[in-house]
Amino acid sequence: MIYLHKLLPLVASPLGLLIGLMLLALVLRRQWPVYCALFILLVCSFPLTARSIWVGLESEYQYQAPTTVPKADAVLVLSGMLGGFETEDGYVTEWGDPDRFFVGLQLVKMGKADRLIFTRGKMPWSESPPEGELLKQKALEMGIFPEQILLTSIVSNTAEESSAVKDLMAEHELNKIILVTSSFHLPRAKLLFDQGGVETYPYPTDFKAKSRDITWLHFIPSADAFRNTSSGIREYLGRIYYWLKYA
Asked: Do both 83 and 22 map to the same domain?
């Protein structure tokens, strides 16, 4: 199923549309699909387009001061911030967006919860260690006590995380958690945890659309903007899928 979830969004993504239109142009031997493809490529490559998408994705959950967060039984940090590669000396871990991790530690050290939960995120095709195990080691190095840290079973997406966290909370008699993840990911994550019967307090971090000002640079196409547009559309597709599923 995880393979299907990764492949299906490609069909409706800008890249999928471009490939489809170019194939259509070859089959029909017409130029209009090429013009449509060029138009989509141009629009999706504008930084203004990417910015607009990410502002929308992060509109529901804005920055919140940690001091305003109510106390809970545990702080949950979702996976999705580590990468890495194999070397002759073993697996080398690299950080992507570490904000979730450091915010989780901050909330625990502020006394917002006594427990810190990491999910053991791992894709079926990945040879890397489960992410939660790596995060646990780093948290221990930064002063969190071993008895404070809990790890879920192996998970590969947010839906599996919600189920695994529910089981872990039942095992340790936890009632409410502070759900820490990226602002754009929080609406989908909150929906899944709500559907799973997990009581959460959402706390956003890892903001992408930091600047709301528009300049002339937003009208210069770039590959980076195309990538951001594509990833933003993918997140919207994920939200639509789960909203329809639980409607």
From this structure: no
**Which domain, by its residues, includes 79?**
66-205
Kindly state the greatest CA–CA separation across the chain. Answer: 66
Count the domains in the chain: 2
pLDDT in tens, 121-151: 988 777 788 999 999 999 999 999 999 999 9
Phi, psi at 180, each rounded to 5°: -105, 120
In angstroms, the first-to-last Cα distance of the chain is 21
- Shared domain check, 73 and 27: no
Dihedral angle, C-alpha 154, 194, 241, 238, nearest 10 °: -60
Q: Rounded to an integer, what distance in angstroms lies between the CA atom of residue 244 and that of residue 238?
A: 10
CA atoms of 211 and 131, how far apart (whole Å): 30
Given this model, what pLDDT does residue 6 score?
63
Any idea what DSSP says for residue 180?
A: E
213 occurs within a structural domain: no
Rounded to whole angstroms, how far apart are CA atoms 170 and 198? 10
Domain match, 50 and 70 both: no
Give the pTM. Answer: 0.90
